[in-house]
Design brief:
The complex is a heterodimer.
Chain A (H helix, E strand, L loop, with lengths): L8 H11 L29 H13 L8 E2 L12 H7 L2 H4 L11 H18 L3 E2 L6 H16 L3 E5 L4 H13 L3 E5 L9 H7 L4 E8 L9 H8 L5 E6 L17 E5 L15 E5 L12 E5 L5 E5 L6 H4 L12 H37 L2 E2 L8 E5 L3 H10 L2 E2 L2 E2 L10 E5 L6 H10 L1 H9 L1
Parallel strand pairs in A: 1-13, 3-4, 3-5, 5-6, 6-7
Antiparallel strand pairs in A: 2-8, 7-8, 9-10, 11-12, 12-15, 14-15
Chain B lengths: L37 H4 L17 H12 L22 H7 L2 H4 L11 H18 L3 E3 L5 H18 L6 E5 L5 H8 L3 E5 L9 H7 L4 E6 L12 H10 L3 E5 L12 H4 L3 E3 L20 E3 L11 E5 L8 E5 L16 H36 L21 E4 L1 H7 L3 H10 L6 E2 L8 E4 L7 H20 L1 H5 L12 H6 L14 H7 L9
Helix pairs in contact in B: 3-11, 5-11, 6-7, 11-14
The chains are: A alpha/beta, B alpha/beta.
């Protein structure tokens, strides 16, 4: 069905005349007979806007989304409130529809947004340079591995078992390409990265050590201790962090972290069944010419006016080609814009207030559930507990319109009965109490055991 | 000449400079649990001592700030955007409405697949459509963008060869390739070997035969290529590549030329990536998000990323359902978190449903018609001598001109022409790419432009050249009407200022950068 095109019969005649072609088919004369499709594509017929709207809406209605249930599901993406002004600004054509800002004179809006984004990420991570976004969290971890390889020329990467399973998997996939091997360090009995075990694994071949803050179980890691263990032999310390809890946690950059990357969904982005969101990549000053992706920099125009450009482009694929610091081209500019709008909305005090609210509700929830904690130490928004007869608890919760969280068994056989519970600012005390209510049989089993 | 613009000039201030202590937009939800002291919950060793220096701004001022910034952007909804290789076609508004439905926007990626059947069906449907368009039977939606798809393609190639016990070290790329191709080759642990271009603009077959050996893992190609030319020797190319056991990789950046006409799978390609943000109307967002799904042949399928969206047949006449399949023992593994950029899939799915088979084919036909028409208009007297076409053939969806005539005859460079276009409110083409064309201008109008817009662009080009015949200095100092004029890019790279800082905390980044050696302290 013809859509979004506008060639009339008269246009067609005039245009073919100007080209000197007799038909549309003539324009495809270079396509050899042997590779022509020679039939219609087998696809459903085109439909009107209304029909497509109704069909896709019907599909969407079959999904049980976070307005249909009380969800404690997190594990990497979280149900935070996104203020209306984010939606409104993101839908402006001037942000939604331009390409990457290759012509800075007519892209000052997008470039300044990148500069402001870099500033916010730099503030939260405590590292002086940030790029303008990468795809998302786990592939950002893999990008840090590639930087570490280029920087150190070493052959081994070490990950904490507290690193998100998707990050560990993505790192392994990418490392198979850039020819690094990956070793894993276990967690302690309290669900934190074990500094002693870490110190034993790190050696002269180690290019980088990867930890996560808070880690996958929600544990707030003692980054300072881990930095000491990780960096003895000159390896880089990479921290994957959620930027929102960083509002009240010591910035990784102040604790010896060389590179801080992460998933930015929690900053004003929707759940979207996993994307698009954005990843961020921040590092120490000495890595400024080694970062992946776009970086906006401040400068002046010929009249002396303040302006912004994409800078340090000699790192990038379109200039440096096979010697580029990374192959990334299109990243996540619009999602990063959501991030900087959201952080402006929260503001300096609001970010702290929001994180403190989560901190208190999360600790309340852990206590209220009364189950055996896997990670009894400090947590900010998420914690893990052992749930006897976890299947029954899930069934009871589902029947009550509650999604109790993420089952750890798939990724952590050692926590077969483990449940990861996320408590954002959207989960009220009343909802937490309801979750505790459906977990009563499990709690009673713990009490009688 | 300069238009007064209240948003330009020294009014350019960042959101941080708008900040005033005590202002705010956010009101926190009520604390409904005991107010335990934060110090009791977080030990000193991990607790932040001072808040991150985020801006303190009211909601009205946030809105004004970002609205003001938006007005300094040129965008596709405003005007013609013939950026070669980027396929800047119309982004239908319906797609934004569909992506924002709560069933999509509010769906958690780890929701039990039983309760995400609509999303999985949509993904499965998109996989099927992309498979049909590519002419290859299997699709993974996971890669986040084109370059991520390229990397996936080479990791798949490596897994395929290693599974056969073969160690291959080289990947061939044409000298006209997108920069992402060679960058990807290095990231995937291979060595780049360049293949030359023949006088007709296609792959130099002799050079290819010479370089295609048992140590070659893959040839990465786009067809039509970055010159906008369809390589008629594609069957022979595929034969040479397959003859040495290598895979043939299709960079899908130029797929918009051939939908429903020819398919990468039919041309002999083993692996294809799509740019959903080019061919399939995901708005580009000023640099993303995109998505880079891949389609592959049977022999590559076992190695596809995990998880895969699959349809499972119901037992005893039960309805089929959709699931995520993690049982993929030969898989290269995950490329990223979760299932990919789902919001992008919604838009591309809606696009394919809107157009159907004939609509997609028509999109390609009109894209090629528009490109050839504009090529003809720019070959007119008064233009062609300054901007000769690089390869004078029927083009596909885009074509490349050389600015060497304008440089030699008028003393203006391609960059000057591009900058002067900004004053005419059209976006310039891609410039200085591909590299083998001197002073290149790569022009891709797309199918969604009218003849009048194409005519207007041709008139703009003519007027810039005629103006330069009289006074080349005008173009050399352009633009004049934009929020800022030419910017000091060299200075920005020499003294990088990549974040805002408080003056009192720091004497200024420019000064700091001059003093600090490359291994600076990293202190904030």
């Amino acid at each position: 069905m013809s859509r979004y095109t506008s060639v009339t019969d008269q246009d067609l005649r005039e245009m073919l005349g100007a080209i000197g072609a007799g038909s549309l088919a003539e324009l495809f004369a270079d396509v050899p007979e042997g590779v022509r499709l020679g039939r219609e594509l087998e696809l459903p017929d085109g439909q009107s806007e209304q029909q497509v709207f109704e069909h896709v809406s019907e599909l969407a209605a079959r999904n049980r989304h976070n307005d249909c249930e009380v969800s404690f599901l997190g594990a990497g993406m979280y149900d935070h409130y996104v203020p209306a002004l984010v939606d409104s600004i993101l839908q402006r054509s001037e942000f939604l529809t331009p390409y990457t800002p290759y012509q800075p004179e007519i892209s000052q809006g997008g470039l300044q947004v990148m500069f402001e984004f870099q500033t916010a990420i730099s503030e939260l991570t405590g590292l002086p340079v940030s790029n303008a976004s990468v795809y998302e969290g786990p592939s950002a971890v893999a990008a840090a591995g590639y930087l570490a390889k280029q920087e150190t020329k070493r052959t081994k990467l070490v990950t904490s078992r507290g690193l998100h399973p998707h990050s560990r998997a993505a790192l392994a996939t990418h490392a198979a390409g850039y020819r690094m091997r990956v070793e894993e360090v276990p967690l302690t009995g309290e669900g934190a990265t074990d500094p002693t075990a870490l110190a034993e694994v790190v050696d002269d071949d180690t290019a980088a050590v990867f930890v996560q803050q808070p880690n996958f179980l929600g544990t707030v890691e003692e980054l300072g201790e881990l930095a000491e263990a990780a960096k003895r032999t000159g390896a880089l310390l990479v921290c994957a962090a959620d930027p929102l809890p960083l509002a009240i946690l010591k910035p990784p950059g102040e604790l010896g972290v060389d590179i801080c990357v992460g998933e930015g969904q929690t900053l004003g982005n929707r759940l979207d069944f996993g994307g698009p969101s954005f990843g961020f990549f921040a590092a120490g000053e000495r890595f400024i010419r080694k970062l992946p992706g776009r970086i906006a920099g401040e400068t002046r125009d010929v009249d002396g006016k303040r302006g912004f450009v994409l800078t340090l482009q000699t790192r990038e694929q379109h200039i440096r080609r096979e010697r580029a610091t990374h192959n990334i081209c299109t990243s996540q500019a619009l999602n990063a814009l959501a991030g900087v709008i959201y952080l402006s909305w929260l503001g300096k005090q609001g970010a702290v207030e929001l994180a403190e609210l989560m901190l208190r509700r999360t600790h309340y929830a852990r206590e209220r559930l009364g189950l055996e904690p896997i990670n009894p130490g400090p947590v900010v928004r998420e914690f893990a507990v052992r749930v006897p007869d976890i299947d029954a608890v899930f069934d009871a919760a589902r029947a009550d319109g509650i999604n109790p969280g993420y089952r750890l068994g798939r990724d952590y056989p050692e926590y077969e009965d483990g449940l990861l519970v996320a408590v954002t600012e959207r989960r009220t005390r009343e909802q937490i109490d309801r979750l505790a209510e459906v977990a009563t049989p499990a709690r009673e089993q713990v009490a009688t055991a | 000449m300069t238009q007064l613009d209240p948003l330009a000039g020294e009014d350019t201030i960042t959101i941080y400079e708008r900040s005033r202590e005590g202002r705010r937009a956010f009101v926190a939800p009520e604390l409904d649990v005991p107010e335990v002291a934060v110090e009791k919950l977080l030990p000193d060793s991990v607790r932040r001592e001072r808040p991150a220096d985020l801006p303190e701004v009211s909601e009205p001022e946030i809105v004004r700030h970002f609205n003001g910034l938006s007005k300094k952007n040129f965008d596709l909804d405003t005007g013609f955007y013939p950026l070669g290789s980027c396929t800047m076609k119309h982004n239908p508004k319906l797609h934004e409405r569909l992506a924002a439905l709560p069933g999509h926007a509010r769906l958690h990626p780890l929701q039990d697949p039983r309760y995400a059947q609509g999303a999985l069906e949509l993904m499965h449907g998109l996989q099927g459509a992309l498979s049909e368009i590519a002419g290859l039977p299997h699709v993974s939606l996971q890669p986040s963008a084109g370059s991520h798809g390229e990397l996936a393609g080479l990791l798949l190639t490596r897994a395929y060869h290693e599974h056969r016990g073969e160690q291959r070290t080289k990947v061939l790329t044409p000298d006209t390739a997108h920069g992402t191709n060679p960058a990807t080759v290095t990231m995937a642990g291979y060595e780049v070997v360049k293949v030359g271009t023949a006088p007709d603009g296609g792959v130099d077959l002799g050079d290819l035969r010479e370089k295609a050996g048992e140590d070659v893992a893959c040839l990465m190609l786009t067809n039509p290529n970055t010159l906008g030319l369809f390589d008629s020797n594609i069957e022979e190319i595929a034969e040479v590549v397959h003859g040495v056991g290598a895979t043939l990789y299709y960079d899908g950046a130029n797929l918009n030329a051939v939908m429903g006409i020819t398919r990468p799978g039919d041309m002999g390609f083993d692996i294809v990536h799509f740019n959903l943000h080019k061919t399939f109307t995901q708005p580009h967002g000023g640099g993303g998000p995109g998505a880079g799904p891949i389609a592959v042949s049977d022999r590559i399928e076992p190695f596809l990323p995990s998880p895969q969206v699959v349809e499972r047949r119901g037992d005893n006449g039960a309805e089929p359902h959709y699931d995520l399949d993690y049982e993929r023992p030969k898989s290269i593994g995950r490329l990223r978190g979760f299932q990919g950029n789902f919001g992008v899939f919604v838009r591309s799915y809606a696009y394919i449903r809107s157009l159907g088979a004939d609509g997609l084919k028509e999109a390609s036909e009109i894209a090629v018609l528009n490109a050839n028409y504009l090529r003809a208009r720019l070959a007119e007297e008064g233009i062609a001598k300054y901007l000769p076409i690089a390869f004078d053939r029927t083009c596909m969806h885009e074509f490349v001109l050389s600015g060497r005539g304008a440089r030699d005859e008028l003393g203006i460079k391609t960059l000057d022409i591009a900058k002067r276009m900004l004053d005419h409110k059209v976006h310039p083409p891609t410039v200085y790419f591909p590299l083998l064309v001197e002073e290149a201008l790569m022009i891709e109008p797309t199918e969604t432009e009218t003849k009048e817009r194409l005519d207007h662009f041709a008139d703009v080009v003519r007027s810039i050249l005629e103006e330069a015949e009289v006074d080349p200095e005008i173009a050399k100092a352009a633009p004049y009407t934009t929020p800022v004029r030419r910017l000091d890019e060299a200075g920005a790279a020499k003294r990088p200022v990549v974040r805002w800082r408080r003056q009192q905390d720091n004497p200024g980044d420019a000064e700091r950068a001059k003093e600090a050696p490359a291994g600076g302290s990293g202190a904030m």
